[in-house]
Structures are given as C-alpha cells and as structure tokens.
Amino acid sequence: MRVFVVGANGQIGRHLVKMLKESDQHDVRAMVRKEEQADEFKADGIEAVVADLEGAVSDIAAAADGCDAIVFTAGSGGSTGLDKTLLIDLDGAVKTMEAAEEAGIARFVMISAIQANNRENWSEKIRPYFAAKHYADRELMNSSLTYTIIRPGGLLNEPGTGKVKAEANLERDSIPREDVAATIMAALDEEATYNKGFDLVSGDDTPSEALSKL
C-alpha cells in the first residue's frame, strides 16, 4: 500500500514516515509545505511532494495521485491563531477528503483529538480546536471514503511503549506520539477499524491487539 502522509513534517508525521519507509508492506509519499522540507525527506530516500492545504483541492489530488491511502496528521499548531485552526484543521482536512475522492483514493485515516466527538467534554481553553476536529471528523463520516478516525489523548514526545488502549469512549489521558504513529500503521489495513472512530491512550495491548478488539 502506498500511503500519502499529509503533515509529514509534523511530530507524528515524522514517526509515521520513518515507520512506513522501514516497512516491507507499505511505501510512503510525504506531503510537506516547503521545498526545503521535501529536500530533507528526499535526502533520506523518501518520496516527497510539496503542496499547500490552503491551496486548491486539485493540487492536493495531483500530489496524492497513485497512492492507495491517505493519512491526515496535519495541524495548525498551538502557536498560530484561530484562523489557521479553521484553515488547516478543518478546511484543510475537508480539502484532503475531497482530493482523495478526486484522486480515487478510498482509504483515509484521520488523526483527531480525544473526545472530539463529545462536545460536553471539550477543554474550555481550546474549544475552537475541538470544534474544528469535530466537524472535520463529521465530514469524513459523511463522505464516500473508507475512514478510520483516531482520537489520541495528550501527546507526549517521550519514546513509545508499544502498548496502547483503543476504545470508542475513554477518559482523557496521554500517549507518546510514536505510539500514535504505530497505531496508524496497524490501522491502515485492519478491517476492524474501517468506518470507525476511537479514542487512543497508553495501555496494555499492542496496537494490533487493541484494534482487533474494536
């Protein structure tokens, strides 16, 4: 499976691209915003393309052409304003869904946020971020795509443990970014995750074990 990673230069994205490159089951194409980022991936032997989530849907579709799955792990980041939250986390995600449909790519994995599906549990400090994730997820569920929505808890930069917990509704907790990437890898062709969304935190099962229970 050739996997198109949107947000490849992000922290989860970089873990995922590395795992896909080392996999004997998948290939990877990294989508980034800047030529220098693409050059860095290419120097590591990774296929990379430059495209902008604030640009045209057709440009994203062209960048993804020939891939079998899309992973959306892009985000505006905590240092930007609410305008970028709307343009990247919501509209950029929806544009990528439209691009997938335009390019004939059915498989789509979305990285969301824990409890984004439950308005009453949104953090007051970042409600606009949760709203963006909520409606992007809803658009994906209403699309023609074979989706998986992964809603990780608080993201950590510490090394992964290789153990996670995945359920439809979990208490807020944390998880290393590396373990989120490993769960994306496990979800790509795990039919138990098709057309489902779930919360994800650190736990006691391998990603494959946790996902098979969904």
UniProtKB/TrEMBL annotation:
It comes from the Bacteria. Signal peptide: none annotated. It holds the Pfam family NAD_binding_10. InterPro entries: NAD(P)-bd_dom (IPR016040), NAD(P)-bd_dom_sf (IPR036291). Residues 7-190 form the NAD(P)-binding domain. PANTHER family: FLAVIN REDUCTASE-RELATED, UPF0659 PROTEIN YMR090W. This is NAD(P)H-binding. It comes from Alkalicoccus daliensis. The lineage of its organism: Bacteria, Bacillati, Bacillota, Bacilli, Bacillales.
